[in-house]
Amino acid sequence: MRKSTLDLGTGTFVLLGFAALFFLTTQTTSRGLSFGSSPHYDLIAKFDNIGDLKVGAPVSMSGVEMGRVAKIGFDPKEFKAVVTLRMEARFNQIPSDSDASIYTQGLLGGKFVGLTAGGADTYLKDKDHIDFTQSAFVLENLIGQLVANFAKSSATSDAAAAPKADAAAKSDVAPKADAAPKSGTVPKGPAAVPVPKTETNP
Amino acid sequence: MNILAELRLTVVESLSELGAMAHFLLRLLAACPRALLKVDLITKQIYNCGALSLVIIMLSGLFVGMVLGLQGFELLQRFGSEEALGTAAAIGLVKELGPVVTALLFAGRAGTALASELGLMRATDQISAMEMMAVDPIRRVVVPRFLGGVISMPLLAAIFSVIGIYGAQLVGVQFMGVDSGSFWSQMRSGVGLRDINEGIVKSCIFGVFCSLIAVYEGYYATPTAEGVGRATTRTVVTSAVVILFLDYLVTAAFL
Fold first, then answer.
1. Which residue, A67, A193, B7, B217, could crosslink A87 as a Cys pair with Cβ 3.0–4.6 Å?
2. What pTM, to 2 d.p., does this model score?
3. In a 3-state reduction of DSSP, which class is residue A202?
4. What is the CATH code of the structural domain delimited by A40-134?
């Protein structure tokens, strides 16, 4: 009789312990119940600047989560960030001329990749490249741009303002006039190629 | 001169203590494979260490979580981001408070029981009797207790964290009115599998060291009433210091 209480107690304890571990891994993380890998396919997008995009960040279209960032690499020839997007297999009808942009969740939240559907009849397949990308919105660059515009408009004499405006313009990632949406890779000066070292984490 | 000599003696003593403990750990590990066959003995120790510690762990977890919910809410409210309470509580519990507080409670509840039990066995010559009967006391008595502690500790820490999260939820959502949906969804997006892993690794390491210290102090206790008492005290003190020190090391390693 005593032996059975002991076994019952131990069994309950071990069961509770594993239930707790299960709860922690499935309920407190975004992993859910997916053990191993569900069917998926990979898309590749090259960005000039990914800001603080992290592996595991969501990929969404119209606000619906369709996949996650699986890998972030670097292309040493083009000096671009190579982001591998792991899409769920059921979302397999994404037009091949869709574009990918990096957005921020909330005001200071993490980054995520947003897809905007194009109009092509062909769909993106595994290992396809997304050609149209738009970089992360980096607060410092925006401020730099603002300062540059300010300097330009307030400068009445070109001779006095030229060096200042030139210096400020160099720090731009995307000069506003050139950065029409869907222009593919945004042109920019060589000074802005590396990802900024200062992170804008809260 | 006297102080220097004493200092030297202390250093030598603590070093040899450390060496003896490492040697003891190796002996335990060497005896583990054969002791693992004695499932009954290990089950009994899991019951002693784990199942009997369940109530204190769950109660402490609940209150730690509730305090975390209250304090976190108070602080986050100032920035208008009380929805982040779920993330804050979960990360704090899973990574730090869960493993550390569980280990400290474990040292106090199960470690002392192990040490005094083994010390009393030593004092009443039961261990010598086993040696006389050619039963290896390490394999028969010490290793099952050690393994019981090692297995129980991560499970206890996980239970602590879960109860703690519910405690924080109780205070945050039920009492303070944080939105339930954002509490859980922010937690889900803020906590990664890596954080859970860190907690599990920590609790496993603490389990090994807590159990080791307890069985070591008990096994080598001076066979007197006073010696058993001292062994128990030393178990708690050494475990607490070692846990907090290792916690720093593991946290640094995971960053």
1. A67
2. 0.70
3. coil
4. 2.40.30
